[in-house]
Amino acid sequence: MSGIMMLLLGGAPVPPLSAVEVLVQGGGGGGGAGADATGAGGGAGGLQYGAAVPITLGTTYTITVGGGGGVTSITGIAGSNSSAFGATAFGGGYGGGGNRYGTYLPNGGNGGCGGGSGTFPSGGSVGSTTQTSATNFTGYGFNGGRISGGGTAEAGETDGAYTPGDGRYYSQFSAFGDSGYFGGGGTLLLAADKSQGGGGWSALDPDQYHRTGTNGTANTGGGGGGGYTSDATLKYGGSGGSGVVLIRYADTYPAAASTTGSPTVTVSGGYRIYAFTGSGSITW
Question: Model-level pTM greater than 0.90?
Answer without folding.
Answer: yes
